[in-house]
Amino acid sequence: MEGKRRGRDRKSRQRRNIRIAAVSAVLTLALVLTWMLGGNLYAKYVRSQTEYGETDPAAFYFYSNLLTESGTASYIYPEGTEDISFTLYNYEDELRSSECDITYEVTLTGVTDPTVSLNLSDANVIDGNGTVVSTAILTGNQQSIHTITFSGLAEGTYIITAKATSPYIAELTAEFTLRETSDDIDVIVVDNGSGYANVKVTVTVNQGGDVIITWPSGVVPDTTDFIFNGVSITYNTPGDTFSGGSAEIEFKDNASYTFNFLKQYTTSIYSNSDFEAEYST
């Protein structure tokens, strides 16, 4: 009997040890799961916090109507031009504009004359409303546009650079050439030769103004041409329309007009030296 009781006690202790081991295993597994889940939750929270902290850059647009990022833009202005004007703006289209204020600077450097160096303080700057701008800032969260004009420039070649300095950096550049002013007047006479009844005379000017055109005897201007509307013609011999004469015509800047003259004798031939053009004094 004593042996059977000891056997039952031993089996009881074994079952109790098994239950304790099972409970310990469950607790250990629970702790492991708790740590794993907790770790995952913590990792997820850190990652979420990190993702939350990584904000996208504010929308940024810095453009010009003439200057480019590539810097390959080049413009040639006609004779007599003394101003260079361009715009800077902060939007892509009507729906997209920069979300931040853009601070910028502008420089003009002479290529023909390297001693020429100008900046915004030497320019006239107005906004889209025509108001003079005192600070070089394109206001964010709205469409902002500045028109910048450098005036009183001599003929030559210039490089203009606009650089955004805050909150991001961007640079736009272009080359501008102002041609030298010339007072020359070009006269080209086209006479197709004997047997033709008319002569074509083309007068080209750089600067606008009143120009006196003089023609020789043997031809008369075609007064049906609109160019002669309201123009007083002076003949060398009053009453003799083929005696040669002159007329004063108003020209615009960089204008070219072609006049038609009728011959008295179709056998006559005329050249550039027969016609003259000069500014009225």
Series of secondary-structure elements, N-terminal to C-terminal: HEEEEEEEEEEEEEEEEEE
Terminal CA distance reads 151 Å
List the uncertain runs. Answer: 25-55
Quaternary structure annotation: single chain
**Number of DSSP helical runs:** 1
Query: What percentage of residues falls in helices of 4 or more residues?
Result: 10-25%
Strand segment tally? 18
- Strand percent estimate: 35-45%
Q: Strand pairing plus helix content: what structural class?
A: alpha+beta
Q: What spatial form do the alpha-carbon principal axes imply? A: elongated
Estimated radius of gyration: 44 Å
Kindly report the average pLDDT value.
Answer: 82
Query: How is the main sheet built?
Result: 6 strands, mixed
Keywords:
single chain, 281 residues, alpha+beta, six-stranded mixed sheet, four-stranded antiparallel sheet, 1 helix, 18 strands, 19% helix
